[in-house]
């Protein structure tokens, strides 16, 4: 689907929700696209199928590092494992960014840290700006608490496009209870955020990604030296819990999530004391594991 422009008429019913004003692309560019900064171009489109699909196409055509594509509505948004991601127009932040870490000498074996980096950056930025404790569920989910219950309100998807990596993020901001796609979903509004103004939230997330990416790149993508590995572990709600890992091929593992290793894998302590790293799969939180004093 070709992205459509943002110049709709004010009377268009899909855009008339006064609690969900449109983003101002010009203001965002003035605040984020600066000489010497990471963000080089920024576009807001009214609707598209998937910002990741569009930006992957642009990456293959030579789009520069630091390109940002934001959609007010995604009609075919994708999550991990080809799951769909849908939400009402302007109810969240749906965007993708284009990075070319190889240009800074980061070896490809460390590029797998990029979606985790985006998660750390987003969680920190949203905790500060929205005033809501935001945590990470390995590998690519963002969680908040709604009435004391953990709910997923955001997800991250990374895709390789030649020498580029496109990272997409979907964040439920003002989604109301009756608009939730599933009962286990959440939003910043439902978590009693101090603001659901998408402009400062988006600026905070993009600035935080730029800071973390710059530091990670400065250390050649080393997750330890850059502080990324420790930061992810500190904000990861999966660690210290008994979990079920649903692995490719229909396999399962149950164990305590004890660490994030240098490759970004989740390390499970299974029966018999065996520590097993998990590189891909769905993680189900079962319960917290009591610690010995």
TrEMBL record:
Gene3D superfamilies: 2.30.30.100, Bira Bifunctional Protein, Domain 2. Residues 1-20 are annotated as: Disordered. One of its GO terms (molecular function) is biotin--[biotin carboxyl-carrier protein] ligase activity. Its EC number is 6.3.4.15. This is biotin--[biotin carboxyl-carrier protein] ligase. NCBIfam families: birA_ligase. The lineage of its organism: Bacteria, Bacillati, Actinomycetota, Actinomycetes, Kitasatosporales. Keywords: Biotin, Ligase. It is an enzyme of class 6 (ligase). Pfam families: BPL_C, BPL_LplA_LipB. GO terms for cellular component: cytoplasm. It comes from Streptomyces malaysiensis.
